[in-house]
Amino acid sequence: MTLGTTLRDAREAAHVSIESLSESTNLRIGLLTEMESDNFKHCGGDTYARGHLRNIAQRIGLNPEILIDLYNQEQAVESQRIQDSLVDNNIIQVPREKKSLSWKIPALFSVAILAVIAIVQIVVSNQTSSPSAAPIASASASASTSPSATTSASAAATTSASPIASPAKSISSGPVSLVVSAPRGNSYINIIVDGKDVEKSPLFQGETKSYQGLKSISVYFSNPAALDVTYNGKLLAPLGGENQEVRRTFR
């Protein structure tokens, strides 16, 4: 028994007409007829087809996983986990190893300090032993001090700037709140909160779901034109058009 035959038999067994199914799922009668004839070319791709099947299964009292398994065996062109796709599109960031501060900078700073101390001791010693040589020593000290001081200042500037240049743990901007509602149609959604999958299901017209995260919330939407998204209490502009696919990360 094929997927299309299973759909038709289950609908008829539930005493649901194709017109009634079309009205309750917001799917065209022509598209439903094609699906019952094992024609899924006009579903808009694997993601939309699976969403339609889940939507239909709830209306005719059938386990949606049965339909999804049949679709994957008979119709699916490519099977790829949505989270892998999010990583491929740089929505989920891969943690990077924190770099430690180079030992060369403190060493250079220490050498510069020792050089300045040595020069000062030489100048003081020369002034004490030979007053006539003081101008020469003073000039020599002045000339020698300049590059050392420059080196010291450069090392100090580098040292003070190094915490900014050195990668450190990312500072969280605080908890993330996301509210997703479907006032204009159906959509298939995948929600990842702080790196963990929390939702993979259709969102039907009239439904609203809320999510809370400590650091980030990554989303995948099909048909984003049907959705309203509220991020930290602020209603956002539409994330995409009708029957498009969109992926975003909120922090």
Can you give a write-up of this model?
This protein is of the alpha+beta class and 251 residues long. It folds into three domains: 3-79, lambda repressor-like DNA-binding domains (434 Repressor (Amino-terminal Domain)); 104-165; 172-250. It contains eight helices and eight strands; from the N terminus they run H-H-H-H-H-H-H-H-E-E-E-E-E-E-E-E. The strands form two sheets. It has a four-stranded antiparallel β-sheet, with no helix packed on it. Strands 3-2-5-8 form a four-stranded antiparallel β-sheet. The longest helix is centred in the middle third of the chain and has 32 residues, at 134-165. The relative contact order is 0.11. Mean pLDDT is 78; it is low at 131-172.
Structure class: alpha+beta
Strand content: 15-25%
Radius of gyration: 34 Å
Task: Report helical residue fraction.
Answer: 40-55%
Strand order of the largest sheet: 4-1-6-7
In whole angstroms, how far apart are the ends? 47 Å
What's the gist of this structure?
47% of the residues lie in helices and 18% in strands. The protein is an alpha+beta fold. The protein is elongated, with a radius of gyration of 34 Å.
Features:
single chain, alpha+beta, 3 domains
Reconstruct the topology from this structure:
Layout: H1 3-13, H2 18-25, H3 29-36, H4 46-60, H5 64-74, H6 82-88, H7 104-129, H8 134-165, E1 176-181, E2 187-193, E3 196-203, E4 208-213, E5 217-222, E6 228-231, E7 234-235, E8 245-250
Antiparallel strand pairs: 1-4, 1-6, 2-3, 2-5, 5-8, 6-7
